[in-house]
Amino acid sequence: MMTLGVDAGTTACKAVLLDDHARIVAEAEHPHDLVNLHPGWAEEDPEDWWRGAVATARQVLAGQDPSGVRAVGISGMVPALVLLDGNGNPIRRSIQQNDARAVDEIRFCKGRLPEDDLFRRTGATWNQQVIPPKLQWIRRHEPEAWRKTHRICGSYEHLTQRLSGAIYTEANWALESGMWDALEETWLAPVLDIVDLPPGALSPVRRAHEIVGEVTGRAAQETGLRAGTRVVAGSADHIAAALAAGLAAEGEAVLKFGGAGDFLYAVDGFRPLREMFIDYHDLPGLFVINGCMATSGSLVKWFRDQFHAGVSYADLDLAAASIPPGSDGLVLLPYFLGEKTPLHDPEARGTVLGLTLSHTPAHIYRAILEGVAFAFRHHVEVLEAAGHPVARFYMMDGGARSALWRQITASVLGREVCHLEGGHAGSAYGVAFVAGVAAGLWPWERVRDQVRIAGVTQPDAAAVSVYAETYAIYRETYRRLQDLYPKMRREHVVRA
User: Among candidates 58, 40, 42, which has minimal Cα distance to 4?
Assistant: First the structure.
């Protein structure tokens, strides 16, 4: 007996196949691109996700009997926005959760519903991640797309529909959309009045482990799965990763180095922080206070693709490892798509401070790794200031493979950092585990038994003091430039 988990990430689809002991049998990955047509924009083609899901499912099922797969789950980015026509087909590319175009629309929403009211009911603030400003942007700039819109959903709900025909909204897309009343567990009427969605545009809300459908005959032909295989509602990628990391109690934090950067911390109630987001944990009864930085691994990928095409990340790490901590006075703010938490500033921009003729590409690359680590430290400070101490840190996802990035992160935080075995497959593993719970293969408690620490990185004492000084400059740089960034914004003419 097996379960399949597929994760539609920012830069790739990943799949894992688990056996009846929740052990990984096979893994696969299929890359796709993030589309950045203008500064602050972030879009993806949902058809790329489906092609990736099909390719990775076929790879992990090679040589396996598909009748042994008891359930399937899909995770993805939250809250990506997919506009669907009456036939369930995407009308345009998705607008990603880290897209920062809807600056004016955020102001519009603030004028219609006070932020205090929104936060109290949804745990959200008016920021670049929530859905209503993006819908307002579509209405203003793409009226034809808006006219065709019959329903809206997220990335993994769309893929699950392709797989099973199920029409629903997963609970964490709802909660992170800024339209879900977490106190009453219903769509929030004052927000719906602002966006004026067509009737039926929002679907019934389901929790991650609920069975929502079965693999259709057509999807079975494409994926290699057996028609009739059960399909769960799926999970927000970062919450599935939190589950895979065994995050089940306060005091531990997961640092997820994917295309975006996620900071995850479990709590036993709905206790949101303004600077961060809050989600339902896949484990019933728990919530996850979390931060999401607009760029992390996607910034590393951008640097390599633009300046060192064909060079491996290992070679980039090797060159950067020869640069001393602090990158010889170089400081980088990783706000290349604006920034979500804890700044909530869509007009922030990537900034490199301190360049001289003595600096090399290796300096800039190391400054990127350090800048992302500084952003994680900012989250730690916000969380601990709110009375949530962190006793232990876990690194996972693709960035955790880098020994250099692990060392930088431990030294920036001044704490030891554990990295997990198979952490790069965390989201896919987590949602496959959810599918196994739904299929009755194992209880929730089993997940802690599957967590394996691959290693522990201690902070370097000399680097800690350097990074403390550099981090202070990092924070001050944003404060000084905060009022300047909006003056750099340019409107873009959108043509059909």
Answer: 58
Task: Return averaged pLDDT per consecutive 10 residues of the chain, 496 residues in all.
Answer: 95 95 95 90 97 98 97 96 97 94 96 96 94 97 97 98 98 97 95 90 97 98 98 96 90 90 94 96 95 93 94 97 98 95 95 98 98 98 96 92 97 96 78 98 91 94 98 98 90 46
Contact 273, 289 (CB under 8 A): yes
CB 108 within 8 A of CB 136: yes
Q: Residues 247, 426: contact at Cβ < 8 Å?
A: no
The partner residues of 205 in beta bridges, in order of sequence, read 169
Query: Residue 461 has which token pair?
Result: 């004492």
d(CA 368, CA 313): 13
- Cα distance from N-terminal residue to C-terminal residue, the chain: 49
Give the tokens for residue 300.
């590393």
Q: Are 424 and 258 in contact (CB under 8 A)?
A: no
Only one residue has tokens 């593993």, namely 429
Give the orientation angle of helix 461-481 with respect to helix 403-413, to 10 degrees. Answer: 80
DSSP state of 89: -
* DSSP strand pairing (82-84 vs 151-153): antiparallel
Alpha-carbon span 422 to 311, nearest angstrom: 24
Asked if 379 and 291 touch (Cβ cutoff 8 Å), the reply is yes
Residues 6+ apart with CB under 8 A from 141: 494
Phi-psi category of 228—alpha, beta or left, where left has phi over 0 and alpha has psi -120 to 50? left
User: What is the model's pLDDT at position 249?
Assistant: 84
Contact 484, 477 (CB under 8 A): no
Question: What distance in Å separates the CA atoms of residue 48 and residue 50, rounded to the nearest whole number?
Answer: 5
Cis amide leading into 199 (omega within 30): no
Structural domains of the chain, ranges and CATH numbers in brackets? 2-238 (3.30.420.40)
Place of tokens 């691959």: 454
Structure tokens at 393: 């840190």
pTM of the model: 0.89
DSSP secondary-structure letter at 67?
G
* CB 331, CB 367: distance < 8 Å: yes
Residue 158, SS3? helix
Q: How many residues does the chain have?
A: 496
